[in-house]
């Protein structure tokens, strides 16, 4: 009995698993531009008409970044304080987590 068919099958499976796309990570920066930039601004400084109208938080401020945990940011995204819409029902948990990272990236020294 030859092992060749089994070997070929194994190599085939390996090749297949290599070509499977990696689990798609949600793109936080893109989600931010899509959902948040209109109020908080592309740089987080809320220097937008809606930002002014709604008193949106300047998310780039180091002081604000320091006084808010990832949990606080996630809560704000899920529940939407004040005039901000809630995203719990609109975005997946993974997308909300990716947005927390995107908000952290807005930090200015
Ligand atoms: C309609 C305009 C609007 C949109 C869209 C919006 N926000 Fe807000 N956001 C606000 C306003 C206004 C506040 C301040 C509310 C308050 O604390 O009184 C706020 C507050 C926050 C806070 C909490 C600030 C704090 O000090 O607790 C975070 C974090 C935040 N927004 C992130 C986001 C993210 C991320 C998105 C996109 C998923 C988003 N916002 C979309 C208007 C908006």
UniProtKB/TrEMBL annotation:
One GO MF term attached to the UniProt entry: metal ion binding
Record keywords: Heme, Iron, Metal-binding, Signal
Record lineage: Bacteria, Pseudomonadati, Pseudomonadota, Gammaproteobacteria, Pseudomonadales
Signal peptide positions (record): 1-24
PROSITE patterns, per database record: CYTC
Domain Cytochrome c: 23-107
InterPro entries for the chain: Cyt_c-like_dom, Cyt_c-like_dom_sf
Protein name: C-type cytochrome
SUPFAM superfamilies, sorted: Cytochrome c
Record-annotated membrane-spanning stretches: none
UniProt organism field: Pseudomonas xionganensis
């Amino acid at each position: 009995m030859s092992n060749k068919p089994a070997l070929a099958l194994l190599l085939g499976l390996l090749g297949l698993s290599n070509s499977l796309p990696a689990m798609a990570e949600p793109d936080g920066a893109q989600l931010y531009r899509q959902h948040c930039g209109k109020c908080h601004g592309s740089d987080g400084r809320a220097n937008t008409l809606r930002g002014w109208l709604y008193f949106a938080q300047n998310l780039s401020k180091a002081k604000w970044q320091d006084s808010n945990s990832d949990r606080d940011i996630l809560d704000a995204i899920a529940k939407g304080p004040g005039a901000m819409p809630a995203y719990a029902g609109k975005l997946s948990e993974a997308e909300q987590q990716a947005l927390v990272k995107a908000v952290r990236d807005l930090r200015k020294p």
